[in-house]
């Protein structure tokens, strides 16, 4: 229904005759920049039209060539948002709610499963799971999709936020805008927040039992997942009862690649520990080197410290901070209005040249 209303409004704007009031020129200019639904859903080439926007992109790696899965939704030459999922090893599926917000705003966006994730090739070789190789992969995807500084917005959430920061620090000249969602700039600081702030919010007996299992590395114990799901995930990952979690989120969790996840993130669901390769990652000293327009999104109930993410926005010279007061780690679901209204406003402000650091 929203699509049809958008089409009706667009047709009305284009069919209005010239009036004599002083706002006519402005209104006509706005109308001429509005994409019709036919324009938005007309893919730029027949291949994408034939596949419904799906494109398997070949990626060169030190271990040979593999293919990653992408799906382009819509067509806007000025605004193209590439979505970097979390995990590592999760999938694009947890962003399917973007379907309900971006199309009617004329925002083109691209779903993307990183190498190792469910819809892409899944080689079993831990030497591939490095930040540097993933950054190179994103750059190859950018080139294959013809994204550039005139239209390329990079969105990264959680692990995708790490990847987005790293990409920006190396390739920011290719970006028009950057969105860092629900990710701190330091894993050691994240671990500290998890243990000093989030831990004490658990019932004492629950925290004691969880810490005992972590100490014994008893991560396969069903009780470990049960306790965290009931007391931690429903408070800080997605603030709804488990039986009300969106099907797309459950599907994404089901499709997660544990090899990639455990190698980089570790077994612990309460911070990052053990030999996980992301354990010492920290960009607090470099974050100010990002010069492109940036939006940092944090949530009051996140697994990540919202104050730290607000600090990140203060360090990046040309940035703003969006707080989702009712949201958690997946605030695109539990604080949708705040999340999407703020995200869409940022993208449109950058596109129009009206973005200003708050």
UniProtKB/TrEMBL annotation:
Biological process terms in GO annotation? proteolysis
Swiss-Prot/TrEMBL keywords: Hydrolase, Signal
Q: Where does the UniProt annotation place the signal sequence?
A: 1-19
InterPro entries, per the entry: AB_hydrolase_1, AB_hydrolase_fold, AB_hydrolase_sf, Peptidase_S33, Pro_imino_pep
Similarity section: Belongs to the peptidase S33 family.
Q: Which PANTHER family match?
A: AB HYDROLASE SUPERFAMILY PROTEIN YCLE, MONOACYLGLYCEROL LIPASE
Which protein are we looking at? Proline iminopeptidase
Organism, per UniProt?
Mangrovivirga cuniculi
């Amino acid at each position: 229904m929203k699509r049809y209303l958008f089409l009706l409004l667009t047709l009305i704007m284009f069919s209005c005759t010239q009036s004599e009031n002083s706002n006519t020129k402005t209104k006509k200019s706005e109308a001429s920049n509005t994409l019709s639904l036919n324009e938005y859903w007309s893919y730029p080439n027949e291949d994408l039209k034939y596949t419904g926007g799906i494109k398997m992109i070949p990626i060169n790696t030190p271990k040979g060539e593999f293919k990653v899965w992408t799906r382009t939704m819509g067509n806007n030459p000025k605004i193209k948002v590439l979505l970097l999922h979390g995990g590592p090893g999760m999938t694009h599926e947890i962003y399917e709610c973007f379907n309900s917000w971006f199309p009617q705003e004329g925002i083109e966006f691209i779903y993307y499963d990183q190498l190792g994730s469910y819809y892409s090739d899944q080689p079993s070789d831990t030497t591939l799971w490095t930040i540097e190789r993933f950054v190179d992969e994103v750059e190859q995807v950018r080139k294959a999709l013809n994204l550039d500084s005139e239209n390329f917005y990079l969105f990264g959430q959680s692990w995708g936020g790490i990847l987005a920061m790293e990409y920006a620090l190396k390739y920011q000249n290719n970006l028009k805008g950057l969105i860092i969602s629900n990710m701190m700039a330091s894993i050691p600081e994240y671990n500290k927040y998890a243990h000093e702030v989030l831990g004490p919010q658990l019932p004492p007996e629950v925290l004691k039992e969880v810490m005992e299992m972590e100490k014994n590395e008893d991560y396969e114990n069903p009780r470990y997942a049960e306790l965290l799901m009931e007391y931690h995930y429903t408070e800080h990952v997605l603030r709804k009862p488990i039986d009300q979690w969106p099907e797309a989120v459950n599907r994404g969790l089901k499709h997660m690649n544990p090899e990639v996840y455990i190698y980089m993130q570790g077994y612990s669901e309460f911070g990052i520990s053990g030999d996980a390769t992301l354990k010492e990652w920290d960009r607090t000293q470099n974050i100010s080197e990002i010069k492109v327009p940036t939006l940092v999104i944090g949530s009051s109930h996140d697994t990540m410290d919202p104050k730290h993410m607000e600090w990140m926005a203060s360090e990046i010279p040309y940035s703003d901070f969006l707080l989702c007061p009712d949201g958690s780690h997946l605030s695109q679901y539990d604080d949708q209005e705040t999340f999407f209204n703020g995200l869409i406003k940022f993208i449109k402000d950058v596109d129009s040249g009206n973005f200003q650091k708050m």
